[in-house]
Known about the structure:
Blueprint: E1 7-13, E2 15-16, E3 28-29, H1 35-48, E4 56-63, H2 71-81, E5 88-93, H3 100-108, E6 113-119, H4 123-128, H5 135-148, E7 152-158, H6 165-178, E8 182-187, H7 195-201, H8 210-226, E9 230-233, E10 236-238, H9 245-251, E11 256-259, E12 264-266, E13 271-274, H10 279-284, E14 292-295, H11 298-310, E15 316-317, H12 318-325, H13 327-343, E16 346-349, E17 352-355, H14 357-361, H15 363-370
Parallel strand pairs: 1-4, 1-11, 2-3, 4-5, 5-6, 6-7, 7-8
Antiparallel strand pairs: 8-10, 9-10, 12-13, 13-14, 15-17, 16-17
Helix pairs in contact: 1-2, 2-3, 6-8, 12-13
Amino acid sequence: MSQKEExxxxxxxxxxxxxxxxxxxxxxxxxxxDWERFGNALEAEFxxxxxxxxxxxxxxxxxxxxxLAPVSLISRLRKMIGVERLKEFTxxxxxxxxxxxxxRGWVLAGVDRISMGVQSLCDEELRSIGRRxxxxxxxxxxxxxxxxxxxxxLDVMFGLPGQTMESFxxxxxxxxxxxxxxxxxxxxxxxxxxxxxxxxxxxxxxxLPEEDSVEMFRMLNHCLREAGxxxxxxxxxxxxxxxxxxxxxxWKGFPYVGLGPGAHSYDGERIRSFNPxxxxxxxxxxxKVEKGKEIxxxxxxxEEMVMTRLRTCEGLNMKEFQYxxxxxxxxxxxxxxxxxIKSGDLIISKNSLILSESGVMISDEIIAAIF
Length: 371
């Protein structure tokens, strides 16, 4: 495994009290949570990876809904890692799970970064996507977290059913007023096999026109830039020095190990592996499930490097690209990129291809065209 000094650990907590209608991540009802056996399985899987503490840099607990887990489990998982001082330890939380007691417990467990899914500060929009909290609860939860944490990330969404420019501006203004260190903003996606897509297909929900979502994204970028946030990745913004280290390492191609049902891993070279999305099997096998594996071809590695690097503000370094794939492939890439450079959607800076402000708006088109 390469670049061991930046190895990240991701732990998937698959339990939810109620599944959001847009979510396609693996999850099950929290009534199925046997926290003791689940913790045993996670520990067994972790130790089967035979990692040395010196390799591990970041720990990220996601889901599902990790904030449903007993604080004792979070503490147990932190101790399991065995690293005296992680560079970053993040846990995802839902606003309605946040209490003073839990916040204090997360601090004692070693958590130093919170990622909270606010999504909107308009109650009608929150109901439309099946969120459990309302705007008042999101604000209350943030105030509790602020007492205990100096590094908080808030998620917001745009393109929601019934959302308007005015309502989204209200959400942005409210988020900026809270002043989190980090903001992640995502366009609502209609994924296959989700309740959201089924509701749209039978006419119960009307999908917002794409041009409306684009305008919301423009407004978001403007407002956050004016408020002092840098967009360091297409969907992520931070105050100075507050980028997500764990997620940044994904985009740099660093290795990570995923633990839990449905979790994915990458060796930093060309092997991806993944656990079956099956809680019953995971518990039955004590975490030692047979992983699926995918060996990436040179073409897939090139595509992935283009896709992940162009999403970042540093862009795609052409020297690094040539070092990995050769001069011929670099010239092919430059030829494909030429029309976007001419249009101003791509710029060249310090030997890197970088999306311009206009290029960010058509990033999917550009990335697909220059693979």
